[in-house]
Design a protein that fits this description.
CATH topology of the largest domain: Rossmann fold
CATH superfamily of the largest domain: Nucleotide-binding domain of ferredoxin-NADP reductase (FNR) module
Helix content: 10-25%
Number of strands: 13
Order of helices and strands: EEEEEHEEHEHEHEHEEE
CATH class of the largest domain: Alpha Beta
Largest sheet: 5 strands, parallel
Distance between the termini: 30 Å
Shape: globular
Number of helices: 5
Strand content: 25-35%
Bound molecules: flavin-adenine dinucleotide
Strand order of the largest sheet: 9-8-7-10-11
Length: 260
């Protein structure tokens, strides 16, 4: 491994049937994160070494020198399943230092609106908890999508935050429930209904590519795209042009050549 820094797994907590929070105690040379940042984690599995990126779901204000990552096992995912099923207390994982520019500005954001879905909850969860811990939570709306109520990652904590903080307004949307689930999808009309002043807010969004595209389109049409801040867990697929002809591809390290 090229990683020097390691973290010890001190707690594992099953959030839902396919999502797990790991509490990690980093070794020396760790430096604190900004709420919303992520970390690269090395995962040994089946005799190989993999690296994946996970947002730090806990706020920097946490006092026990530990941090958490919350991982959702995705369909056909190699490592997320392994983390959710097999990582145990006492394991050591190589980690990088916190990185990323998806965080709140130091100056008070005017009025944030978080739009998240699935495991995309993690940066928002860290940011909102950080603002609460600092006693400077502004009027905040949060729209979160999950297929069903029992799928909401960190759902109990979100509901408790909603209950105990007058300035935090949580809107949970279950995208596969109701008579016509397609009506639960993100739309400008839905935004108007849940958060009428959304055009005046700083929007922090994290979720699957389709949701992020819909938000981008909506905010572009409303002329407020500059207020949108996005974190992507997956790169969007690029359309292959119809006239693409391919070519020879050479892998520099292995010196293997093939048709692309
Ligand atoms: C900045 C950042 C922060 C993140 N934070 C979190 C977080 O807080 N929580 C979280 O759960 N995840 C987070 N992720 C996602 C995480 O890094 C992993 O991508 C995720 O856990 C899936 O890993 P995997 O090994 O299970 O999936 P992989 O095996 O890497 O597969 C990923 C996806 O690609 C598809 N795929 C794989 N191979 C191919 C192929 N050859 N062709 C087409 N499609 C393919 C799979 O079907 C799957 O949908 C974050 C990612 C980034 C970049």
């Amino acid at each position: 491994t090229t990683h020097k820094l390691q973290a010890r797994v001190v707690k594992v907590w099953d959030e839902t049937k396919d999502a797990r929070t790991l509490t990690l105690r980093p070794g020396l040379n760790w430096r604190g994160h900004r709420a919303g940042q992520h970390v690269r984690v090395g995962i040994p599995a089946d005799g190989k070494h993999y690296t994946r990126t996970y947002t730090i779901s806990s706020p920097p204000e946490r006092e026990d020198d530990c941090f958490t990552i919350t991982v959702k096992a995705i369909d056909k995912g190699t490592i997320s399943h392994h983390i959710v099923r097999n990582i145990k207390v006492g394991d050591y994982l190589p980690i990088g230092l916190p990185q990323g520019d998806f965080y709140l500005p130091d100056a008070q954001p005017i009025q944030p609106l978080f739009i998240t879905a699935g495991s995309g909850i993690t940066p928002a969860f860290s940011m909102i908890n950080s603002l609460i811990a600092q006693g400077r939570l502004p009027d905040t709306h949060h729209i979160h999508y999950a297929p069903h109520e029992f799928d909401v990652v960190l759902g109990k904590e979100l509901k408790a935050m909603d209950r105990y903080n007058d300035r935090y307004h949580l809107h949970l949307i279950y995208s596969r429930e109701g008579e016509d689930p397609s009506r639960n999808r993100f739309s400008a009309a839905q935004l108007d209904a849940l958060c009428p002043d959304w055009k005046d807010r700083d929007v922090y969004a994290c979720g699957p590519p389709s949701l992020l595209e819909a938000i981008e389109q909506c905010m572009t049409e409303a002329g407020c795209i500059r207020r949108l801040h996005v974190e992507r867990f997956r790169a969007p697929f690029t359309e292959v042009p119809a006239d693409a002809v391919g070519g020879r591809v050479r892998f520099a390290q292995s010196d293997v050549e093939t048709d692309g």
